[in-house]
Amino acid sequence: MGNVVRLLSTLALRGALVELAGQYQAKTAVTLDADYAPTVGLLKRLREGEQADVLILTREGLDELLAEGAVVASSRIDLARSYVGLAVKVGDPHPDISTEAAFVAALLKARSVAYSRSGASGIYFAELIQRLGIAAAVNARATITTGFTAERLIRGDADLAVQQLSELKQVAGVELVGPIPLSLQTAAIFTGGRMAASANAAAADALLKYLASPEVAPLLCESGLEV
């Protein structure tokens, strides 16, 4: 239908997209039928036959689909970037993570670190602690989860949560400590595109143009992303 756009997006943009969905509908009379999951999970669903009009995935994930012919090349557009960071429960002390050494010390001191191995940030973190030589120590007490890792802070399962900053900000009752030292990471780029099989190309392209517009940029930044 022309007035409904089916959107599949990575969790990193969920906070911003949920907030702007109503604004976009009021502005255009187009409803966003949106679902959110880690890029790895969305790729699996799409390859099993799920359909959508617009996709927002990590750049690498979207480019895989583009190479497979599932995404229209001319529609591809980078929308935002994000860094991986740490959060604590509101009121808990913020560990020093200003240097690589301080960051390592904070991880080793933590009772438990919550992270997800199904999302881009968790895959990165698992590789990082391996590279730093502390994987065994951290994983011995880690809380491996799915979805929003900061929810495990509220439940008392962990005292540090690792995820994209924009994902950590979506959980009430937690505070950002800050990004993992930038010398240890590269920003994740989130990229949008229209599925080649979309029967609603005009509305899909209009949504992508809107998401990349200066009007939306402040909301993306407020949600913890960079543009």
Q: Let me know the average pLDDT.
A: 95
Distance between the termini: 31 Å
The gross shape turns out to be: elongated
CATH T-level topology of the largest domain: D-Maltodextrin-Binding Protein, domain 2
Q: Strands of the largest sheet, in order across it?
A: 2-1-3-10-4
User: Residue share in helices?
Assistant: 25-40%
Structural class: alpha/beta
List unreliable stretches of 5+ residues: none
Q: Count of helical segments? A: 10
Oligomeric state of the chains?
single chain
Strand content: 15-25%
Q: Which second-level CATH architecture of the largest domain applies?
A: 3-Layer(aba) Sandwich
The total beta strand count reads 10
Using the coordinates above, name the CATH class of the largest domain.
Alpha Beta
User: Rg, please?
Assistant: 18 Å
The figure for the number of domains is 2
The secondary-structure element order is EHEHEHEEHEHHEHEHEEHH
Features:
227 residues, five-stranded mixed sheet, alpha/beta
Q: What can you tell me about this protein's structure?
A:
- The structure is a single chain.
- This protein is of the alpha/beta class and 227 residues long.
- It folds into 2 domains: 4-81 and 188-222, Periplasmic binding protein-like II (D-Maltodextrin-Binding Protein, domain 2); 84-184, Periplasmic binding protein-like II (D-Maltodextrin-Binding Protein, domain 2), CATH 3.40.190.10.
- 38% of the residues lie in helices and 24% in strands.
- The protein is built from 10 helices and 10 strands.
- The chain has helices at residues 14-28, 39-47, 59-67, 100-109, 120-132, 135-139, 151-154, 165-168, 201-211, 217-222, and strands spanning 4-9, 31-36, 54-58, 77-82, 84-89, 113-116, 143-145, 160-164, 174-179, 188-194.
- The protein has a 5-stranded mixed β-sheet.
- β1, α1 (14-28) and β2 (31-36) form a beta-alpha-beta unit.
- The radius of gyration is 18 Å and the shape is elongated.
- The two termini are 31 Å apart.
- The mean pLDDT is 95.
